[in-house]
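Handout, page 2. Input:
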Amino acid sequence: MITRDIFRRPLVILTALLTLNTARGDEMLRINPLRAFGDQIADIVEQVLPSVVVIRTEAVRYQLARDFFFGQLYRMEQRIPGQGSGVIIDRQGYVLTSHHVVDNARQIEVVLDDGTVYEAELVGSDPHTDLAVVRILAEPDERFDAIEFGDSDALRVGEVVIALGSPFNLSSTVTMGIVSQKGRVIGMLPYEDFIQTQAPINPGNSGGPLVDADGRMVGINAAIHSGGARDAGNVGIGFAVPGNLAMRVAGSLIATGEIAHPWIGILMRPTVDGVEVEEVFRDSPAEQGGIQRGDVIRRINDRPVSSALEVRRSIFQHTEDTPITILIQRGEDIKALEISPSVMPNLDQFRR
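Output:
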């Protein structure tokens, strides 16, 4: 005989499951995803801000002036204040910033997030990558909060990033966006491999860190794309020097006060066929090694290259006087040329 208990048991189990799922659903509804996301961002900012500094500078420039009574020309000194951002990369007080923030600075001050002001000195500067290192002048046993480093090569397009700095004299400013693209070249520097970001970057942000969702530095804020002379603010396109490149440059500046970039002396342009040599600088390693205008670069040390950026990256990975084998196509001929890079000349020489 079939009893009613047989039918009651499944009903009891189903009722218990529905009650449990309803309780879990109510618990999930009580969790505000936006609040959780905001708390995570705030935690990252609290972690990073002690490493972010304001850099104040005073540069001296001279301009010609004419004596009102006697008409003689003389040099008149001008003191020009400046301000940018920086990030502490070593507990002993080494600060990474942009070259143009401290260029020609006679005096440098570093202001910590808590408002403490220190004098600082220039350790070294690299105009080719727009990077510089200054050192906080403090007691020998004094230590500072250094930022954690990330891997900018592993950074993916679409990742959330946070820019920190002091735009428009507003210290400890935080903005957020995503990585819009990597490997951008905008024609501002001899070597460019910019991270393009949607995080708003404005004048004064230069030298501040770009960090990932774990609060690790993946870039140094460098430049913005503005709307023109009438609209110099941010329009959603900012650029940062990749963190891996920045730390390689900083390490050399701290160790020796300078960095020697390898250079072969060519200008390139992309074509349907590949990377074409547009110009060869006179007396450059490229000219001495036999590269000619119109050659198409196919490989560097047996690695195929398809863009000018890949060519520059390959060359930058070598030291000066270390031969590089460059496979070029010239008409119907394929040639393997051995080029020994030299030190990249200064900007004035580079632009000639």
